[in-house]
Specification:
This protein has helices at residues 31-46, 48-55, 61-82, 93-114, 120-127, 130-142, 148-168, 177-197, 203-228, 235-263, 265-270, 275-287, 295-311, and strands at 2-4, 12-14. With 314 residues, it is mainly alpha-helical.
Length: 314
C-alpha cells in the first residue's frame, strides 16, 4: 500500500489488489542434524572435568567458577548485541532462570567442589546417571512417557556406565559424592528446561540469556573470589578456564540445546551415556590417569544401549 499527500491536492491512495501470501509450513527439525549437534555437545562436555582439574592448578574453586561464568557471559553478551536479539518474552524468564541455576551456576560449582577430592573417573559415576535423570525429569515436566524399550535401554546403559566407573575408582565412595549427586539433579533440571525453551528460541539464545542473567553475580563473585583465593597462573590453568568458559559453558550448551530441540530431550540425553567414557579417555591423555582394559567392552555396551534408545519410541 502506498500513499502520497500534498498540502494543495487531495490524498491519492493506491491499493495493491494482489492476494496476500500465506506463510509456508515451518520446516521440521532434521533428526540427523540434531543428533550430530547433541553429539558435539557431549564431546565438549566430556572435556569439562579434565579442564576443570587443569583450572584448579591455577585458581581456587570459587574463582574458577566465577571467572568461567564471567567470560562465558561476556561472550554471550557480544553475540546477543551483534545479532540485535530482542529480549525474551516475559513468560520465558522463569525457564531461563532455571537454566542459569542448573547449568551456569549449580553444576559448575558443585562439580568443581567435588573435583577437589574426587578423581575424574570417580566423578564420572554420577555423570553416567545424568541421561536417565534428565529423561525422568523431562517426562515429569512435559507429561510424555517414553516406551518401555527406551527405559530398559536407558537403565541398562546407566548400569554399564556406573559399573565401569565404580570399578575404575576402586569401588570406594569419596567425600565429594554429595556434591556430585546434587550437581546431577540441578543439571538435569537445567537441561530439561533448556531443551523446552530451545523449541521456541534458538539454542544459543537460551544459553546466552541464561548467562546474561548470571553476569552481575559472576562479576561480583570474580572480584571477591580472586581477592580471597590465591592465583598461580600457568599454561594448564589458563587453558582449563578458557575451555570450561568457551567450550563447555557456551559452545557445548549451544549445540546441546539445538540438538535437544531437534530430537527431543529423552533421546538426546541418552547420547550422554558416552560422556563418562570419553572423559576417561581425556583423563588418560591429559591427566595421565590409568585406564582399565575393560574400557573397550564398556564402550561397546554403551554404544549398543545408545543405538537402542535412538530407535525406541520416546
Amino acid at each position: 500500500m502506498t500513499a502520497q499527500d500534498s498540502a494543495t491536492a487531495s490524498t491519492t491512495i493506491a491499493v495493491d489488489s494482489r492476494p496476500a501470501r500465506t506463510p509456508g509450513p515451518v520446516a521440521a527439525p532434521d533428526p540427523r542434524q540434531g543428533a550430530l549437534l547433541a553429539g558435539l555437545g557431549v564431546v565438549a562436555f566430556s572435556l569439562t572435568f579434565p579442564a576443570t582439574a587443569w583450572g584448579l592448578e591455577s585458581f581456587g574453586p570459587w574463582s574458577l567458577v566465577a571467572v568461567r561464568s564471567l567470560l562465558a557471559g561476556v561472550i554471550a553478551g557480544v553475540f546477543l548485541l551483534v545479532g540485535r536479539v530482542p529480549l525474551p518474552e516475559r513468560r520465558h524468564w522463569a525457564g531461563l532462570a532455571m537454566v542459569a541455576a542448573g547449568t551456569v551456576v549449580g553444576f559448575p560449582l558443585l562439580t568443581t567442589m567435588a573435583l577437589r577430592t574426587s578423581t575424574t573417573s570417580h566423578a564420572a559415576v554420577v555423570v553416567g546417571l545424568l541421561p536417565l535423570t534428565t529423561a525422568a525429569l523431562s517426562a515429569l515436566r512435559t507429561g510424555r512417557r517414553p516406551s518401555r524399550a527406551f527405559w530398559a535401554a536407558a537403565l541398562a546403559g546407566a548400569g554399564v556406565v556406573v559399573a565401569f566407573t565404580v570399578q575404575q575408582s576402586g569401588g570406594a565412595l569419596s567425600t565429594g559424592d554429595l556434591y556430585l549427586f546434587a550437581a546431577l539433579l540441578v543439571c538435569a533440571a537445567g537441561y530439561t528446561e533448556g531443551g523446552r525453551l530451545a523449541r521456541v528460541m534458538p539454542g544459543w539464545q537460551v544459553i546466552g540469556w541464561a548467562l546474561i542473567l548470571t553476569l552481575p553475580l559472576a562479576a561480583l563473585g570474580s572480584a571477591a573470589a580472586l581477592a580471597a583465593e590465591p592465583v598461580h597462573l600457568g599454561a594448564h590453568g589458563v587453558l582449563g578456564v578458557l575451555w570450561v568458559a568457551v567450550g563447555s559453558q557456551f559452545f557445548g550448551l549451544y549445540v546441546w540445546y539445538r540438538g535437544m530441540a531437534a530430537i527431543g530431550v529423552p533421546r538426546a540425553s541418552q547420547l550422554q551415556l558416552a560422556q563418562p567414557l570419553l572423559t576417561l579417555v581425556w583423563a588418560v591423555l591429559l591427566l595421565g590417569e590409568h585406564l582399565s582394559p575393560a574400557a573397550p567392552l564398556a564402550a561397546a555396551g554403551v554404544l549398543v544401549c545408545i543405538a537402542v534408545t535412538q530407535r525406541a519410541a520416546a
